[in-house]
Each structure stands twice: as C-alpha cells, then as structure tokens.
Write a structure and sequence with these properties.
682 residues, alpha+beta, Glutathione S-transferase Yfyf (Class Pi), Chain A, domain 2, Neurolysin, domain 3, 4 domains, 9 strands
Length: 682
C-alpha cells in the first residue's frame, strides 16, 4: 500500500505527493489517534499532578500533528480547487468540527488545565505559559464544557453544521464567480480599457481556447472594465453579474443562492450564543476581543460615521457634478461610480493606475518589499527553489537573521481558475518548541493579482502593491514571533480586533518616498518613480477617503447589527437591515438587485462574524503606531526594532492594549487615523 504523505512527518508539506484521495483517510486516522492520545493524557493527569512538561506540552504536540496535516489541505482547497479535492475537504469538515467540540468539552482535559492553574506547578510557569493556561480555560468555557449533557450535545451539532454551512457559502461564491463570463470579439466594445487589461482579457480567452477577449468576475478582469470601459451598458452588465453572485438575482439567479445558507448560519449562531448564556452572538464574539461590549463598538463606529459621512456626502456631490459636466452622466448609477471616480482622479491629480503600473514590476516590488523589511528589522531573504510547491507560480522564501533561517513563506501572487478571490495570510507551520528542537514558523501568503503574460513581468497597480504589503504584515506577525507556545505564537491568541495592526501598519510604507524608492523602478529603465509622479500620488492619497471610510463603516455596522439585533432573520430581514444601514451612512446609490450580503465571505465564511469592525478598530492602532515612524523616520531602524520587539515578537503573550502602550508609551489616539485619512477631526 502506498504511504499517505499526510500521515508522515515533514518539515514542509510534500505538495508534489498530496492527492485528493489521501485527505479523508489521513484526517480520519489522525483524529482517531489524537482521541486516544488525549484520553491517555487526561487519565494520567488524574494520577499525577499536571505540569507543563507532562501535560500541556504533550497536548500541544498532539494538536500540532493534526494541524500540520490539515493546513496544506485547507490551503489547496482555497488555491487549487478541484471537484475531487472539494469532495475530500467537505468529507472531513464534520469530523474535524466534531473532534474540536469533543476536545473543547472534554471534562478531563478541563479539570487538568484547572489543576495546573490551581496547583503548585503554577508558580513554575513563565508569563507565556500562564497566559496560555488562562486563555485555554476561557476557551473551554466558551466551548460549553460546563453545559448539561443535552445542551452540550446541541452545541456540538451546531458547530458541526456551522462548519458545513460556511464551507458551502464559500463554495457558492466561488462557483458563482466562475460560472459567469462574457466573450467579446470586437475590441472596440472595450474602448477605454487599458492595454495591460486588454492583454489580460485576451490571455484569459486564449487559456479557454476561445477567440477575442473574455471578461470574468475575477478581480484582474472585473476591475479594469468597471474603472475604464466607456460602454455604460457593458459596465452595467458586468456590475450586475458581480453584485448578484450567489443570490436570487442576476444572470445565474437561484443557481448558487446563499440566502438559505445565511439564514441558517445566523439562526444557529444566535442559538449557540444562548446556550452559553450570552444575549446575542455579538456578545459572544466580543468575549475574546479588545472591545468591551457591542455598545462600545457601536459608539466607536457611530462616532467615526459622524465625522466621515458629511465629508463623504460632499465628495459624492463633487463626483456627481463632475460626471454631469465632463462625462455627460446626468444620474450616477452604481455601475458608473468606479468609472467616474477614476476619471475625476485623473482630472484632479493627473494620475492613473496605468501611469504608475510600469513602475511596479512584480520582481522589483518583491525585492523592494524585502529591502524595506531588512532595513526595519535587520533581516535577510533567500529563495529556496528545492522546496516542493503546489503551482508553478508559487515561490518559497526563507527569512534569515545572522544567516540563520528563522521562518519561511510561500508566495502565491496571481489569480487563476480554481483559486478563491481576495488576499490572505494563513499558517502553514507555527513556531513552537518541540522535544526535537524549535519548529520554525511558515506562512502561506496569497493574492490575486493580474498574472504576467508571456515573458514580461507582471505590472502591479499601486493598490496591488498596498495589498501585498498588507498581507506581508500579517505574515511578519506570524513569522517574527518569539513565542515558543503554539497557542500564543504569531497571530494565535491575538485579539481579533488587534490582528490587523501589523498589516495596516505596513501599508504606510507604500506612500513614503523612502519606501517607494526601494519598491518602484520602471520596468524598462529601472528609473525610480519621478518626483512629479510621486507628488501626484501623494496628492491623490486621500482622494474620496471619506467615501471609502463610510463604505467600511457600512460593512461594519451591518455585520454588528446583524448579530446584535436579529435572532433568526430571513433573507428579507437581512436585506432590510442592510438597506437601513445604507440609509444612515452610505452616500452612493444602490441597485435594487444588489445582493452584496450573499458574497460577504468575511462574516459568513471567514472569522469576522460580529468582528468586521476590527479593520477600523485596528486602523486606529496602526495609524497611531505609524505616527512614531513619522516622528523618527519611515525606515528608522531603532523604531523598527522597538515595533518588532514590542508588537511582532510578542504574538498573543500579552493583551493587545498592553503591547500598544508599551510601544507608544500611552493609549491609542484616533487623531492620527483622521489625519492620515484626510478627514476633519472636528
């Protein structure tokens, strides 16, 4: 019988050997082995007082083995999705959820952790170990360990069903995205679309064996059409297909409809919260976050709205006036917004993505990103081409300090069929101390940029550069940790509303001359970004910034209120709530067929349920943290060293508020965010 690579111990995933048929047998076997090992640990803890070495460390090793097998499977499901892999992934979801619930409700484990907390061994633990014990006891309570048998069983059923539903939601969005395309033979129908985008549309058609140009709903195809195509009817058609994905509207109406999935998810979340004696799912979600209560978050969001909405209204009024005057658009429709905004940005600031794109060839950007990190944190990067990869586009790099590897990451930049949209960082390996030595952290860094065509390098937009830096900030948080316990290593144990701090912090470097001189170089000549273009870029930084902020506030308020005000909303209730939020904070028009919520994967298939506000909450932290670099210099090594030591290396070892205060010397202020966003403080 052929060995199953997922059952073997590897430093890195053996991607060249993993097949869909390996997944279910391996995960099932590992769950069974883990159950047996956990039962034995719990039995031993009854006979011998638990310590870190005889209980916590062995339990961490059991958990890590299963995590190491599942991480590459989950990643492949998101980046190399096939029917066979999807079926294998789906077949494991219920078992993994049931196992997680079983562990979280295991009375023997809970009592062993409590005995470690209450016993003499507590005095021997370091700060990180104590933090882990306290966090773990909290997680046991939130997993329903103290519930009577019947509610405890119901909790497990709900968690299993929620895992299945979240996966179904994500699959529906992916399928709906890939189900639609539009083929165009006559290039004149694409008038206004930049040459770089036309080449992408042509390559997309060629890859499918069709003539002409193919528009899909993947971002590198969708966005240039919406931003540049002169044809209003084409923009309307593409917009309609995108904003109705996985819904009862649009060209694939009803085929991948997420409405019943959302309804069941929200009802089950509310029931789950009730089982744990929380009034709402929002209260349950915030039990592990920096924010104290839903009321505090609501006050925070409404305060930002009161500052941003008036300016956003002014920005939109100016856009309407410009569209009437310059574009002959008497009424701005939703499919006109990106187009009119791009035209006005060009008119006001004499700058466009196409002017900037030649200065951001992907190889130069990646090299510049590494140089930025080298200067801030004293590190070095080296590509390792011997590591097995899962696609030819993927590259693997090691981070070195004093010529010694301290971490690694897979870099997967380009959009392709079978890959979920968006950008993200995920754990491949977590830093932890093992009996065989230190396990180094490894990250998956994934984006969906316009791929290179032929031998020429991919040319990124400035927004894509910002996205890369954002995700790399998450990666640095994971990879530069100095914590040796899995539960507080990297982003583990970090409050969800603080986890965006390092990622949003990195975005600032894409606007500074010192950073851009390292990142940008003309694809043909290598010349740096000319000062005139830099000044225009700086001038356009806060173009329609208030409109952008109220858009994020719309998402945040919708998410929070959805999990705070409704117990079991139907699709009509969800739509009505979103409409009400938009009436209060949105400034751009919405089409009656808009079904944004049906594709809002962050809260229905990600970790942001009742937590989408985290982006704005953490942006306050990141803007204030960046102000320290404004004072010292954007690439100041001493300030970078403090940020690394007091934020990045700490992981979840201490409360996020304590870590921020240690770095900044005080509590965070909202003023830098308003200033950086160009929004009046009053």
């Amino acid at each position: 019988m052929t060995a199953n690579p997922l059952l073997e111990t590897h430093t890195l995933p053996p991607f060249g050997e993993i097949r869909a048929e390996h997944v279910e047998p391996a995960i099932t076997a590992l769950i069974d082995e883990s159950r047996d090992a956990i039962e034995e640990l719990a039995r031993q803890a009854q006979e011998l007082p638990p310590t870190w070495d005889n209980f916590a460390a062995p339990l961490e090793a059991i958990n890590d083995r299963l995590v190491q097998a599942w991480a590459p499977v989950s990643h492949l499901n998101g980046t190399m999705n096939t029917p066979e892999l999807r079926d294998a992934y789906q077949a494991c979801i219920a078992g993994l959820s049931e196992f997680s619930t079983w562990v979280g409700q295991h009375a023997g484990l809970f009592h062993a952790w409590q005995a470690l907390r209450d016993g003499p061994a507590w005095e021997t633990l370091n700060e990180g170990q104590r933090r882990t014990v306290d966090n773990t006891l909290r997680e046991f309570r939130l997993a329903g360990v103290a519930l009577p048998p019947e509610p405890k069983a119901r909790y497990g059923d709900i968690q299993s069903r929620l895992s299945e539903l979240s996966n179904r939601y994500a699959n529906n969005v992916l399928d709906a995205t890939q189900a639609w395309h539009k083929d165009i033979q006559d290039v004149s129908e694409l008038a206004g679309v930049p040459q770089s985008a036309l080449e992408t549309l042509k390559a997309t058609a060629d890859a499918r064996g069709v003539d002409g140009y193919r528009i899909t709903l993947d971002f590198p195809c969708f966005f240039p059409v919406m931003s540049h195509a002169h044809s209003r009817e084409l923009r309307r058609e593409v917009y309609t297909a995108f904003i109705t994905r996985a819904s009862d509207q649009g060209p694939n109406a009803g085929e991948f409809d997420n409405a019943p999935v959302m309804e069941e998810i929200l009802a089950l979340r509310h029931e789950l919260a009730g089982l744990l004696d929380f009034d709402t799912y929002a209260d349950l979600s915030l039990a592990t976050k920096m924010a104290d209560s839903p009321n505090q978050v609501m006050t925070f969001l409404n305060d930002l709205a009161s500052r941003a909405v008036p300016q956003a209204q002014l920005e939109f009024a100016e856009l309407e006036s410009f569209a009437r005057r310059e574009l002959d658009l008497e009424t701005l429709e939703p499919w006109d917004i990106a187009y009119a905004s791009e035209k006005r940005r060009e008119a006001c600031h004499a700058i466009s993505d196409e002017q900037l794109r030649p200065y951001f060839p992907a190889p130069r950007v990646i090299d510049g990103l590494f140089k930025v990190v080298e200067r801030l944190y004293g590190l070095r990067f080296a590509e390792n081409t011997r590591v097995p990869r899962y696609h030819d586009d993927v590259r693997y790099f090691e981070i070195l300090e004093d010529d010694t590897p301290i971490a690694g990451f897979y870099l997967d930049l380009y959009a392709r069929e079978g890959k979920q949209g968006g950008a993200w960082m995920a754990d491949c390996r977590v830093r932890r101390q093992t009996p065989d030595g230190l396990q180094l952290p490894v990250a998956f860094l994934t984006c969906n940029f316009t791929p290179p065509i032929g031998e020429a390098p991919a040319l990124l937009t400035h927004d894509e550069v910002i996205t890369l830096f954002h995700e790399f900030g998450h990666g640095l948080h994971h990879m530069l940790t100095r914590q040796d316990i899995a539960d507080i290593s990297g982003i583990n144990g970090v409050a969800w509303d603080a986890v965006e701090l390092p990622s949003q912090f990195m975005e600032n470097l894409c606007w500074e001359r010192e950073g851009l001189d390292l990142i940008a170089g003309h694809v043909d000549t290598g010349e740096p970004l000319p000062d005139e273009l830099f000044q225009r870029l700086q001038g356009a930084k806060n173009f329609q910034s208030a409109m952008g902020m109220v858009r994020q506030l719309e998402f945040s308020l919708f998410d929070l209120r959805l999990h705070l005000e409704h117990t079991a909303p139907g699709a009509d209730d969800i739509q009505a709530l979103l409409d009400d939020v938009r009436m209060r904070v949105a400034v751009i028009p919405q089409a009656p067929f808009n079904r944004f919520q049906n594709g809002f994967a962050h809260i229905f298939a990600g970790g942001y349920a009742a937590g989408y506000y985290s982006y704005k909450w953490a942006e306050v932290l990141s803007a204030d943290a960046w102000s320290a670099f404004e004072e010292a210099g954007p690439l100041d090594a001493a300030t970078g060293r403090r940020f690394r030591q007091q934020i990045l290396e700490q992981g979840g070892a201490r409360d996020a508020a304590e870590l921020f205060a240690a770095f900044r010397g005080r509590a965070p202020s909202i003023e830098p965010l308003l200033r950086h966003s160009g929004i009046a403080a009053a």
